[in-house]
Design a protein that fits this description.
Elements: H1 2-25, E1 38-46, H2 55-62, E2 73-74, E3 77-78, H3 79-86, H4 94-102, H5 112-128, E4 136-144, E5 147-155, E6 161-169, H6 175-182, H7 195-210, E7 222-229, E8 232-239, E9 252-259, E10 272-276, E11 279-283, H8 292-296, H9 309-320, E12 325-329, E13 332-334, E14 341-350, E15 355-369, E16 374-387, E17 396-407, E18 412-425, H10 434-440, H11 446-455, E19 456-469, E20 473-489, E21 492-508, H12 513-517, H13 520-524, E22 529-533, E23 538-545, E24 552-563, H14 565-578, E25 585-588, E26 592-597, E27 599-613, E28 616-629, E29 683-696, E30 699-711, E31 733-743, E32 748-758, E33 783-788
């Protein structure tokens, strides 16, 4: 160890000297004139604490008004240096041209006019957009060694608040509507007088009137006025009439024509015309590209009905969601004879390429066991062929093949392939009629039912996969399911499989059989299983809230699975009536059988990201899950159990090498450490915290800490301390480390070096902590994880 430290020390000195030399040699200030200085820093300083919102958030908003910003760096060198070095150079090499185009930046020489304009823009923003009517902003310049440091001094004073609000309507025909709207104002007493708040109220009024038939009503007819005193504002909202002694006109729906195969620049003559529910459908071909029946279910305006802007938008969105049309245009026009009618000529431009293929591949690094030289290169390939409109009902049919292999020069770690096919119908098939009854009995509000009907696809799928994992097992899986995919917004999605059957054939390899023979709990989880569901099979709910003005974003992922519930109830009923006590299975010949697996599994994951400043973020996640067998099943199938470790989990350990509980495989004389890790459990707790920061150019850095473990819920005699008890907190493993990320905008490459800080079991001295790895000193102690994109 002494030799290693002696060798590293001079190298670190050399790196420091090299960086200092590089910094001096690449100093762009040497190119400046006598009275010039490079803008090096913009800073905002508040002189008071009277602002209504956190100063770091207000600082972030004010920074958007900068008229001049410092140059960035590339590979620790200011980008303006590349400009001075290459812009006027005669060097025409590929590298020089690439630097000119992608790296160099025009030098940000301090401009006093830009600084004054920035201060004015900040002051204007505070007064007109944020309600700080007495705010003042000035700038202060400091120049040192031809580097300019600009500080913007902000005095916000107090924010003005709404004291009272009064609504005045000049149009007698809509007085009642405005009166109802005033009861739910978005700018109640005490609200800050900000542009955002008043824009929300304006949009609310406009939307309500447009949904009441007033198609031409817009924000120009809504005005806000205020009288101020003592930081209070008496607000008057006036709804203007379109003219003197005039009322806003109310509109109704006229004719609806749908051109199902429209091509821009061509006439709309047709060979076929069909009328369904007072909607005329036209086609230039002998058959419709998408059947009128399918289109009718996605049109929510009807002839003779009151114009409703939200229904118009809902129709356009619903037709666009079919993914069979390149463009969807509704083309509303005022009727030439009756000026209160709006006619529609839908122009649906189809995507002609019915079949679409997609091919992807990736390369990754798999670090399984460094000490046994189990480090592998991974390759994966996938191909998919899909039809957007298989049977002219806008259904999507797909066929996919996937394959992967992990290997090194000595062995193959794992290899696998899968075949998948599916049919997705862009409509809700309520087979059990549960939703229909819930709607009729008003258990589900009309708004919720409409959202389910508009944004749900019904999916039928079939998958076969085979995986071979060296030294452990081979797995053949056959899966068929029917369910729904509900996506009401870009932020939320729910996948619900109502009916499903999954056959799992898990064959342990010869090298792994002795381990199973010594562990009944583990052996039972490797039996042949049939997973079933007739009413509820599984559900996955994902929600992601994007970052708002405060820079905070978060997301939730919930997964629930039940297998064998219906069979278990039938089995119990049969035993009750027959007086028997038998657990059903599926005979396989005379010597073998397939177990009807009965278990329930819940997995919850919450993650968040908080912007601190600039491109510095604090991110974290928390995960908890449990899997419980019932109805005669002794264990949950091995491939349905939880595992920790690896690139997206507790990064100081390889995947499946941690746990369960306080089990220490190194102290187990019956264990075989030459196999790949296989530790799993029925209960999981996991959390991570990560500080992400910029380094230079596309390089990013991270410092992280991970904690968690898995436990079994039943006794496992062969794996000591694996069961979940009240002392589970003592078995929480902790890893910490650093990460290097290369952000290429479309994807991110990640290298994380994780160190084991705390083991889930004590060492010979009774301590759980690994003090030798606290300083992240020896790279050989780290678990290297390579991944694509962020871990959470």
């Amino acid at each position: 160890m002494q030799n290693k430290e002696y060798k590293i020390y001079p190298l670190s000195q050399f790196c420091i000297y090299a960086m200092l030399l590089l910094t001096v040699a690449c100093n762009p200030t040497v190119y400046l004139g006598d009275n010039e200085a490079l803008l090096t820093e913009n800073k905002i300083r508040f002189t008071d604490r009277k602002a209504s919102e956190p100063r770091n958030l207000l600082r972030e908003e004010l920074s958007l008004n900068y008229k001049q910003r410092p140059n960035k760096e590339f590979l620790f060198i200011p980008r303006e240096w590349y400009y001075y070095r290459f812009e006027n150079s005669s060097d025409s090499s590929f590298l020089a041209n690439w630097i000119r185009k992608n790296v160099s930046e025009y030098p940000s020489v301090h401009d006093s006019i830009a600084a004054s304009e920035t201060a004015e823009a900040m002051q204007r923003y505070l007064r007109k957009d944020k309600g700080y009517y007495n705010a003042n902003v000035s700038s202060k310049l400091k120049v040192k060694d031809k580097e300019a440091f600009v500080t913007y001094i902000v005095d916000t004073d107090r924010q003005f608040k709404v004291k009272s609000i009064n609504y005045i309507c000049e149009d007698s025909s809509i007085v009642d509507i405005i009166s109802d709207l005033s009861q739910e104002s978005l700018i109640p007493v005490g609200t800050g007088v900000t542009r955002v708040n008043f824009n929300k109220e304006e949009n609310r009024i406009v939307s309500a009137l447009q949904d009441s038939g007033y198609a031409k009503f817009n924000s120009n007819y809504v005005t806000f006025q205020g009288d101020t005193s003592d930081y209070k504002v008496d607000v008057t909202v006036t709804i203007l009439a379109p003219g003197a002694d005039q009322n806003h006109q109310k509109f109704y729906i006229g004719n609806i024509n749908v051109y199902t195969d429209y091509t821009a620049g061509h006439d709309t003559s047709s060979k076929i015309k069909v009328n369904i529910k007072d909607i005329d459908y036209f086609s230039k071909e002998e058959s419709f590209f998408v059947t009128p029946k399918t289109l009718t279910s996605r049109i929510f305006i009807e002839e003779g009905g009151t114009y409703t802007r939200s229904k118009e938008l809902r129709t356009a969105q619903s037709l666009s969601n079919l993914n069979t049309y390149r463009f969807v245009t509704l083309n509303p026009t005022i009727d030439e004879r009756i000026d209160s009618l709006i006619n529609y000529n839908f122009q649906l431009s189809p995507i002609k390429n019915k079949w679409v293929s997609e091919h992807t591949g990736s390369v990754y690094y798999a670090n399984i066991q460094r000490e046994n030289q189990r480090e592998f290169l991974g390759l994966s390939l996938s191909t998919n062929l899909s039809s957007r409109n298989l049977l002219q009902n806008a259904e999507n049919f797909s066929i996919g093949l996937d394959g992967f292999v992990e290997f090194n020069l000595n062995a193959v770690n794992s290899i696998g392939a899968s075949f998948e096919t599916g049919l997705s119908q862009p409509r809700l098939y309520d087979i059990t009629k549960v939703l229909y009854l819930a709607r009729k009995t008003r258990i589900i509000p009309e708004r919720v039912f409409n959202s389910l009907n508009d944004n749900t696809s019904s999916d039928l799928g079939f998958t076969y996969s085979y995986t071979y994992t060296s030294t452990i097992y081979s797995l053949a899986s056959l899966n068929a399911n029917f369910g729904y995919n509900y996506r009401p917004t870009l932020n939320s999605s729910t996948a619900f499989n109502q009916i499903g059957v999954n056959y799992l054939l898990l064959n342990p390899l010869e090298t792994f059989i002795p381990i199973l023979e010594n562990n009944p709990y583990l052996k039972n989880s490797f039996t042949k299983r049939l997973l079933t569901g007739a009413v509820f099979r599984d559900i996955a709910w994902v929600y992601n809230e994007p970052a708002k003005s405060k820079g905070f974003s978060w997301g939730l992922t919930y997964f629930g699975e039940i297998s064998g519930l219906e069979l278990s109830l039938l089995n119990e009923g049969f035993n009750l009536l027959s007086g028997k006590d038998k657990v059903w299975d599926l005979p396989l010949g005379t010597q073998d059988s397939i177990e009807f697996s009965k278990f329930v599994k819940v997995d919850f994951d919450h993650h968040f990201s908080q912007k601190l400043y600039g491109t510095h973020f604090l991110a974290g996640k928390f995960r908890a899950g449990i899997a419980l067998p019932f109805g005669g099943s002794q264990t949950v199938p091995f491939v349905r159990q939880f595992a920790v470790g690896g690139q997206n989990s507790i990064r100081g350990w390889q995947i499946r090498s941690l746990g369960p509980g306080g089990y220490n495989i190194a102290e187990d004389p019956s264990a075989n450490t030459n196999t790949l890790p296989y530790q799993t459990g029925d209960f999981i707790l996991e959390s991570s915290l990560e500080y992400r920061f910029p380094v230079s150019g596309f390089l990013r850095g991270a410092v992280f800490i991970d904690a968690g473990n898995v436990w079994t819920l039943s006794e496992d005699d062969e794996r000591t301390d694996s069961r979940l008890t009240s002392d589970f907190y003592k078995q929480i493993a902790v890893a910490s480390g650093v990460g290097i990320r290369m952000d290429f905008s479309y994807f991110l490459l990640r290298f994380d070096f994780g160190y084991k800080i705390r083991n889930p079991f004590p060492n010979e001295k009774g301590s759980y902590w690994n003090y030798s790895t606290f300083g992240w000193g020896n790279i050989n102690d780290a678990n290297l994880s390579f991944g694509v994109n962020l871990p959470f």
